[in-house]
């Protein structure tokens, strides 16, 4: 047992550190893509005094702790969101390694989870899903489907043909949902970013689980907004005596975790449902 742990420890440390570095880059994407800025240039710098951030200050989590959450130059506060995102992504990559071992499937799960996390963060903050996430996600997912098929690994991801069909079904299904919502609400109910997001998700999980993702995402959104967000918003506006205006629903925030759930456990959920309705 000790030998197994000692052999796997270097892989675990590598996965954790690599994931944290990817999380650091994810912070840049979340901050810049909604503003249509490059994520490559200029290098990271303080938004207050424009002082460049040194490489040793940019080490994930540790750099923020060393600086005590403030710029070394102007002492401007650095949001704790940055180390939190780095830590979450790093732990996500570690969990993927522990669940699937040092395999290509583990890498696919880690990258897909990172993309979904970035989409959820950006949609929550800006009500926007940048093309950078979805274009890269679609290309990576389709390319990885072909590579995974050639490697012959047992994986929760869809094969190449199902990936293409899933992308079409996912984008088409969410487009129909958006159209129905627009008819019912007399206003735009779904952004194009949600359509491209579901193309990525469908390419990862295939057509059947793409439909399940839309259902699970809608259920999560309905539960959170109807039971929590809408009552709080109504209470706040009623205290001010203002008319109640329902807040917008950033659907990507709910589709992203739904995609991860259906990727990992969707087949079991579908099998259970089919077995339950087949039972007399």
Could you characterize the architecture of this molecule?
Helices cover 72% and strands 0% of the residues. The protein has helices spanning 2-32, 62-67, 81-100, 104-126, 131-151, 160-185, 192-240, 252-278.
Based on the structure, what is the oligomeric state of the protein chains? single chain
Counting helices, strands and paired strands, the structural category is mainly alpha
Radius of gyration: 21 Å
Beta fraction of the residues? Answer: under 5%
Low-confidence stretches: 1-5
Instruction: Give the terminus-to-terminus CA distance.
Output: 47 Å
Mean pLDDT: 88
Largest sheet: number of strands, sense, barrel closure:
none
> Based on CA inertia axes, which overall geometry fits?
globular
Order of helices and strands: HHHHHHHH
Query: Care to count the β-strands?
Result: 0
Number of H/I helices: 8
Helix content: over 70%
In summary, what is this structure?
This protein is an all-alpha fold and 280 residues long.
């Amino acid at each position: 047992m000790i030998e197994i742990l000692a052999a796997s420890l270097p892989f675990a440390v590598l996965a954790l550190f690599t994931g944290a570095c990817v999380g650091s880059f994810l912070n840049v994407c979340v901050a810049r893509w909604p503003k249509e800025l490059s994520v490559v240039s200029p290098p990271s710098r303080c938004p207050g005094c424009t002082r460049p951030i040194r490489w040793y200050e940019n080490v994930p989590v540790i750099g923020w702790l060393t600086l005590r959450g403030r710029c070394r130059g102007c002492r401007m506060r650095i949001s704790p969101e940055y180390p939190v995102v780095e830590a979450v992504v790093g732990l996500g990559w570690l969990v993927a390694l522990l669940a699937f071992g040092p395999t290509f499937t583990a890498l696919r799960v880690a990258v897909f989870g990172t993309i979904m996390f970035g989409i959820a963060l950006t949609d929550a903050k800006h009500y926007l899903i940048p093309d950078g996430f979805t274009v890269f996600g679609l290309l990576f997912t389709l390319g990885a489907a072909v590579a995974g098929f050639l490697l012959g690994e047992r994986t929760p991801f869809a094969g190449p043909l199902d990936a293409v069909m899933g992308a079409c079904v996912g984008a088409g299904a969410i487009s129909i949902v958006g159209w129905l919502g627009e008819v019912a609400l007399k206003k735009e109910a779904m952004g194009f970013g949600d359509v491209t997001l579901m193309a990525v998700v469908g390419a990862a999980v295939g057509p059947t689980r793409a439909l399940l993702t839309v259902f699970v995402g809608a259920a999560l959104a309905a539960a959170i907004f109807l039971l929590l967000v809408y009552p709080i918003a109504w209470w706040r506006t009623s205290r001010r005596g203002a008319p109640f205006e329902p807040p917008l629903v950033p659907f990507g925030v709910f589709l992203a975790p739904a995609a991860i759930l259906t990727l990992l456990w969707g087949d079991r959920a579908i099998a259970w449902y089919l077995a339950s309705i087949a039972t007399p």
